[in-house]
Amino acid sequence: MMRLCFASLLLLLSAMPLDACGDGLPGLASGDALFLRMDYHAAVQDYEAALSEASPDPELLWRIARACVCIGEVEEDAHKRLTVLRKAEACARRCIASESGCPEGHTWLAAALGYLALEGGIQEQVALSRELLAETDRALALDPRNDAALSIRGSFFRALGNVGWFKKQLASLFVGEIPDGGFAEAEKSLLEAIAIAPDIMRHQYELGILYTDMDRIPDACRAFERASSLPVRVAIDRPRLAKIHAFLEELHCGSK
């Protein structure tokens, strides 16, 4: 049975605004400082300590979900990775249940679902993909300048573009309708994310991957070159930067 290519959904993401929803609580400042230092486990501890005093505050819940996604992105142990991603999903859902108008809750639910799709079979992947897309729709309806949600959509549509029309039609016969979209939608979403947040490595990196898949090598080289100059903001950026340098060498970008 065919498996959809969700490996491109490396869903992390820029340091998002730290006061996007909620009124602000004790523990936020220390947790945010730890998050920016990429000490995600300690950040979760601080957020959870504050949550015990004011449960269920959406501002804390989406931050816990975000930190858990960041942990999951670099966790090598499969069981630990699945556990922390399920925690991210649960916290994002609690955030949305508490305040459905919080765009970060929808964004980080989409991020968690993208990674969880990697762990499931084809039927679960298709179901999660539909929910992922719906959550990015909700996030962007609430905040059209949500570059993280746009970047997630870009990766998602790139994955769909790699599946191909025939395989999508075949899969839909067995597991239900697969969302429409492909490379054109991926490029549009990623370019919008870059326009909003040009200094986020992930957005440029994903654009380079997309152009590689589209065999637009000069465009891919330009995207990877821009990505290589950007700062490491989250833990996944370190291995991502190594991949960027590998692509630059493999594509012979210096000679383009």
What's the quick description here?
This protein is mainly alpha-helical.
**pLDDT < 50 stretches:** 1-20
Name the shape in a single word: globular
Number of strands: 0
Oligomer: single chain
What is the assigned CATH homologous superfamily? Tetratricopeptide repeat domain
Give the fraction of residues assigned to helices.
over 70%
CATH topology label = Serine Threonine Protein Phosphatase 5, Tetratricopeptide repeat
Strand content: under 5%
The number of distinct structural domains comes to 1
Number of helices: 12
**Class per helix and strand makeup:** mainly alpha
| Ends apart, CA distance between termini | 40 Å
CATH architecture: Alpha Horseshoe
> What is the N-to-C order of secondary-structure elements (H for helix, E for strand)?
HHHHHHHHHHHH
How would you state the average pLDDT, rounded? 86
Q: Could you name the CATH class?
A: Mainly Alpha
What can be said about the biggest beta sheet? none
Give the radius of gyration. 18 Å
